Fold this protein.
Amino acid sequence: MFHDRARIQVLAGRGGDGGLSFRREKHVPKGGPDGGDGGRGGDVVLMADERLRDLSSFRAKTKFKAGRGEPGRGARKHGADGATIELRVPVGTQAYGEAGDLITDLARPDARIVLARGGSGGRGNQHFATPVRQTPRFAEVGEPGEEAEVELRLKLLADAAMAGLPNAGKSSLLRRLSNAKPKVAEYPFTTLAPVLGTVESPDGAQLTVADVPGLIEGASEGVGLGHEFLAHLERARLLLHVIDASAEDVEERFQTIDRELALYGAGLDERPQAIVLNKIDLLPELPSFPLEDERVVGVFPVSAATGAGIGELKLALFRLCPAAPEPVFEEAPELPEFLEYRPQPPARRAYRLYRTDRGFRVVGEAPPPDELDAVLRAAGARKGQEVEVGEEVLEWE
Ligand SMILES: Nc1nc2c(ncn2[C@@H]2O[C@H](COP(=O)(O)OP(=O)(O)OP(=O)(O)O)[C@@H](O)[C@H]2O)c(=O)[nH]1
Ligand SMILES: [Mg+2]
């Protein structure tokens, strides 16, 4: 099975707590504070890997948690940073946020984006000594990591894509045109997942062509296999509309597919189309295409069985395929894939949380009780510990 969608939950690592410690040396009776800082929590990163073809690796596992930062320790020892995890996805994967907003489009190998950022580590008590407070018995608590629910959708990146009814001969054609070897058989719906092939011109130029499962009437509403794969046509700059020319109703066949492209939307019905009239070996004379249509940039009678017309079609592809858009990333490093996306930009906290030797201290504008509860629980508060909020001292339950 080919998986072009996945929903995942990501949780970045919590920052490590600051250390609460005092220097101990043989001849120094009362050493100063020497608690080091906590390490940063690990990030969850999404990364495009050329070697991958689909999102099936996210079937087995959908929750990903980066490592938490280690707490700071005595002797000013900094806690280790939490491990960052990298989720690898095929090139062409888009990530959407919970509101359906496009977060990023990893359209280039090795493009990467931070989906959830690790919390910063808390400062150790070594930072809190002042002339009047030489023994600070508190240290900062590490911040929580960001979390997010993300939908991944793979949209193949091909220069041209085939559209057509089942059995039209799309896969046979891709075998003829490219290095790909998709399965061919005399029954409909032989192709169950998109296949990419590379076509080479005599002068060494290359184009990628996608063979997509056959479409039938109603495909845009989910009939047959076609619908979920229509998305893979979206990024192709040229459609190869493959029609079995040995059938009597060539025009009707064209229109059936064309309607589905229009119903699907995303501009598929405005894409330039090369009409491939296949199976001419079954016809006594060369067929013609009965329609005038401004999107039709060429009509090619071919036989994937005998190879007739294939050479011409191949050359024409290089001529007809609109030039790829300039790789914008070179001029515009601010493309989404380079942005560091923060799912929930952490609101600046109006308070700070410190660990003391008896429990916790909240300094600044304390959050509402529910939130305070959650924050303390996350920081590892235990029953019976003291929580100082302003002038008040509460007991944690
Ligand atoms: N006579 C003849 N048969 C062909 C030609 N091209 C393909 N076929 C046959 O048509 C049948 C369907 O071919 P496929 O390439 O599997 O068709 P498809 O469009 O990929 O079909 P789906 O994957 O089901 O959508 C097979 O039996 C092929 O051998 C051709 O040019 N001439
Ligand atoms: Mg096929």
Remarks:
- DSSP finds six helices and 19 strands in the chain.
- Confidence is low (pLDDT under 50) at residues 327-346.
